[in-house]
Amino acid sequence: MASSAGAPIQSRPYRSHRVPACIRCRSRKIRCHIDIPGEPCLSCRERRLKCQYADKSSDGSPEDMNGGTRTPKRQRLNRDANDEDEEDRPRSAPVLHRPSNHPSASIILAPHVAEDVDILQRHMSQHRPPEGQGSDAGQYRTLNQDTADPIVYLTVPRFRSGLAPELGAGKEQLEILQQLMGPFKREVVDLFFSCMHYAFPVMDEESCFLLKRGQLEKVSKNLVCVVLATGSANWFLSDTLKMHPKPDLHYIWNKAISALHEDFLSPSMATVNAAVLDQTGRPSVSIMGNLTLCGRTISLAQTFGLHRDPTKWDITETEKQNRIRSFWGVLITDYWSSIAYGVLPHIGKRFYDVPLPTIESLMPIRATPAQRCATVSFVHLCALTELLGDILPLVYEINPNRATLSDTVATLKVQLKKLEDQLPDWLPLPNKPGTSNLWFCFLSVRLLLSRVNLRAAVLADEPALKKSRFDELRQASTAILDYICFLGQSQFQDFWLPYATHLLVHAVTVSLRCAVETPNVEQRMALVSTLERFIAHIQHARDNYDWDIAGYTLERCSESVTKIASLTTRGSAPPPEAILVMPERPDPEDAHTGPVIDDASLLLSDLLDPNAFDFSWEALWNTPSGMTNFAL
Asked: Which of 40, 354, 328, 362 lies closest to 208, judged by CA?
């Protein structure tokens, strides 16, 4: 059996027999070079793996105790290389978070408490007898050497008294899902990686390693349930699966969510990752469920200290990278659900110091060009999310500073332009994996800034400024609609955050408002024409490309667009350059002309049911129009 050495190997002479090579280097017949004392060898470190060594008691024995024949060499090496139990982790750095079946968990202490505990621990360590340690030695763990800002973790019981799960959270749900998938479990897991993971890489490396090799029994059960549910959403993208009936997605998601709720009784880091993947899974059908799950996930993540920068902590490099990617997954779900659902964000910009993830830390060892593009898009999405955290307070502030609001928006626009300038050359055109969702998010942030800018003009009570910013808002919403009408099958089947459906509702609603309030008849007819093309296009995408993002948008907006169109005079057809190849749709009886909406007293509430929307006009939000060049 493979195990790590009792103490970290500080160095290894070339071709040394006294200090054996690790299992991976021996199997590949390459030099096991330990260039950094106490760390894995160079070959394992490049692959972000841990050195494993064969026990001396089993090295020379040709037979084992079970049947007399030794396991084949390749099988033994694979078994040993994949063993991720606690005792196989490197001893050079502590392992902070234990698996969900471990009876104890580590939670971070508040800064004011951590400083006091750190001082007491240092004092007690100086007066501790050499033969023993104090009774509190195992309760606290200090992870850095910074006396001004110590990071201290406290060990607490993981389970409630009498509620320790005997079978493991999610065991029953996973058995049901495995029965549903039958022989196609591996195909569904592969769909998760190809369609979701590289564009949203929040899962830890160990779980990815085990899932790719089909060792589902070694991964948290609730996490496997969420992976199977996420992969099933892309069922028809698999050449193998599309030949077979697709299971009921709602039933699969209900089982996965049930397993996740069970896991919250004894949460671990896998609970955080599973909850983040659950919130970004599609289709998104439960706003209330996602809102409450988001709050629980953020609270758990902060309890584990994910909001603090781990780069200088005394933990393994792998755990540092896993914590960073998990936190940014939590932050993305918090900020984008805030603007999508209309709720206050839970994480303040001043209360975390986690650095942005790097492409190198997220990239697989042998990444394909498509995987690299998807991962690059995720890094830029993280940077955009950080900027969104600066905008959200302006959206939800009840009494903003009227004198500085416009200047603040102008500064944020400059920062948004800088982020756009940092995008790769192949953006903004959505012809690479992950780019369709990324550029849509950029356009949505522009729309949000324009909406806040209009609010600043209304508060300043300047009619001329209000008119110019109203035109800017109209162009911003039209830009999003034109962009969606530009997309085709490959883009609709790419990765999308589920919040896109709510952001589309916002864009359509702003365009409807502009159509009602604009005094220019030509602009009104152009807006209505764009809205009709947009509704027809996303309906075609839903029916033909299984784009579930369109479902909620059509439910909320199609009837409203029809009502507005029926009350607007039909003008001439749009110019040829604005015509997109659209699917044929039934010719509604809309050739008749209705009254022109020139009455200034006509309100949007006269045309729309105000109860159909969960947000007020003042909570809405900017991008330019034209959209021939999406990099405006």
From this structure: 362
Sign of CA dihedral 127, 128, 129, 130: negative
Report the alpha-carbon distance of residue 3 to residue 626 in Å, rounded.
62
Residue type, 591: A
Tokens of 423: 């995008």
Higher confidence at residue 47 or residue 566?
566
Helices (H) and strands (E) in the chain, counts: 22, 5
Q: How far apart are CA 541 and CA 580, in angstroms?
A: 14
Q: What is the pLDDT of residues 553-579, one digit of tens each?
A: 999 999 999 988 888 755 444 444 444
Of the candidates 141, 159, 107, the residue with the CA atom closest to the CA atom of residue 304 = 107
pLDDT band, residue 434 (cuts 50/70/90): confident
235 vs 432, higher pLDDT: 235
Residue-wise burial string across 331-365, b where 16 or more C-beta atoms lie within 10 A, e elsewhere: bbbbbbbbbbbbeebbbeeeebebeebeeebbbbe
Token couple for 391 = 């905008």
Q: Which amino acid is at 459?
A: L
State the Cα–Cα distance between residues 152 and 107, nearest whole angstrom.
9
Tokens of 103: 């009876």
Query: How far is residue 280 CA from its own chain's centroid?
Result: 6
Task: For residue 60, give Cα distances in angstroms to 1, 56, 72, 77, 196.
Answer: 12, 7, 14, 15, 45
The two beta strands, 104-108 and 2-3, are unpaired
Distance CA 557, CA 562 (A): 9
Whole-angstrom Cα distance, residue 216 to residue 449?
Answer: 45
DSSP string, 359-409: HHHHS-TT--HHHHHHHHHHHHHHHHHHHHHHHHHHHH-SS--TTTHHHHH
Residue 104's H or E segment, with its range, is strand 104-108
Distant-in-sequence, close-in-space partners of 424: CB < 8 Å, separation ≥ 6 = 376
3-state helix, strand, coil in the chain (%, to 5): 55, 5, 40
More confident residue, 32 or 379: 379
Query: Token pair of 148, please?
Result: 């001004």
Task: Mention every residue, 6+ apart, whose C-beta is less than 8 A from residue 432.
Answer: 370, 373, 374, 377, 426
pLDDT of residue 200: 95
**The predicted structure's pLDDT at residue 119:** 87
% of the chain exceeding 90 in pLDDT = 48
Go through 510-539 and write b for each residue having 16 or more CB atoms within 10 A of its CB, e for each that does not: bbbbbbbebeeeeebbbbbbbbbbbbbbbb
Give CA angle at 214 (208, 216), nearest 5°: 75
258 is written with which tokens?
Answer: 């049930």
Q: By the 8 A CB rule, do 336 and 384 touch?
A: no
pTM for the structure as a whole = 0.76
Give the max Cα distance, the chain.
95
Contact indicator for 621, 506 with CB cutoff of 8 Å? yes
Query: How many CB atoms lie under 10 A from the CB of residue 415?
Result: 14
283 preceded by cis ω (within 30°)?
Answer: yes
